[in-house]
Amino acid sequence: MIRVGILGDIGSGKTYIANNFGHPVFNADREVALIYQKEKKVFFKLKKLLPNYISKFPINKTQISRAILASPNNLKKIVKIVHPTIRNKLDLFLKKNKNKKIVILDIPLLLENNLNKKNDILIYIQSRKIDILKKLKSRKGFNKKLYKKFKKIQKSNNFKKKKSNFIIKNDFTKKTVKKRIEEILNKIIK
Hints:
The chain is an alpha/beta fold. The chain folds into 2 domains: 1-24 and 102-185, P-loop containing nucleotide triphosphate hydrolases (Rossmann fold, 3-Layer(aba) Sandwich); 27-96. The chain is built from 9 helices and 5 strands; from the N terminus they run βαβααααββαααβα. The two termini are 13 Å apart.
C-alpha cells in the first residue's frame, strides 16, 4: 500500500485535492468532528479537564473554540485527549484499506504528530495567501484568532515543502488539480 500524505497551509485546499485522487481518504478533521458528536468517553475527559467550557454532549465547535481562545494550554489539553482516538481511527482505516493500492492521508498535523512513515509520499499543496484568506473568510464561523492559534502548533510551510516529494500549485480550478494529480499518480504507481 502506498500512503500519500497531503500537506499545506490551513485553507490551501488539502481536503479538496485529497478527495480528487480517487482513492480512499482518511480525513482527520472530519474524524475529529465525529468524535465530538459520538464519543462520550472523549466528552467526559474534556469536561473533567475543561469544565468551564465543555458542558454538554454532543460537543459543539463553540465550546471547543471558547476553550482554545481562553488559553493556549487548553488547546494542548484537547489535543492530548483527542489525538489518541484519531490515531486509533487511522489504524482502523489503514487495516480496512490494507489491500488498496493507494490511500490518502488528509491529516493537518501529520508531521507534527509523527503520523507519517519513512516511505510515505508527501505532497505539499501550495496556494497563494490571498486565495487562502478569501477561502477562509468564506467559511462559516471563521475566526482569525483561532486560525492564528492553530498556525502556531503547525510546522512552517517551508519545512513541509522541503519534506514533500511533490508540490501541487492549487489555483482552485478542477482542471489544473486533476492534471497535476494524474501526473503524480503516474510517477508513484510505475
